[in-house]
Amino acid sequence: MAELLRTHPLTAWTDAFERLPDTVGITVEPFVAMVDVRLGTIGPEASAALGVDLPTAPGTWVPAGTGRAVWLGPDEWLLTSTTEAPEELEARVRAAVAGLGGSATDVSAQRIGLRLTGARVRDVLVKGCSIDLHPRVFSRGSSAQTTLGQAGVVLLALSDAGDDVVVLVRASFAGYLADWLLDAALEFTTPIS
Known about the structure:
Layout: H1 14-18, E1 25-28, E2 33-38, H2 44-50, E3 61-64, E4 67-73, E5 76-81, H3 86-98, E6 103-106, E7 111-117, H4 121-125, E8 143-148, E9 151-157, E10 164-170, H5 174-185
Antiparallel strand pairs: 1-7, 2-5, 2-6, 3-4, 4-5, 7-10, 8-9, 9-10
């Protein structure tokens, strides 16, 4: 049987992203396995079973092996892995949380990641996002579920300076958001003086 090749929905935008200056860099993140985890009570048992201390503070994420654990709600997390296949991650996480009354659902095909880097990242994001992205508030380890240009997204701060952010957007909105980001970055394509 022939294997189906995955085609990234933002392949057509790669050239436009590459033409952006370093002040606002946009790159398409490779596909990663993602599992939505629901778990009513977390503690040492859950941490030991999952191999990561799930973040308990709202709006945070932590490194988790080759991926991340992102707080999405009081009993919900997004776990990602860059090395496991989606079905492997889901099976592993499901086995870890099933005895604790939890659930795990593969959502790998749901979101696409875009990485924004450069001195003008916050300037671009604030054009379509109403949350406070100042580094005092939104620094490495921070996350937020919000809207960006009217598309629902999850933002992950990868640096303390606010110049490195991952945007997770539903795959069906990826093209729209790519166009929106290119338009929002247009005024910042000249160097900072």
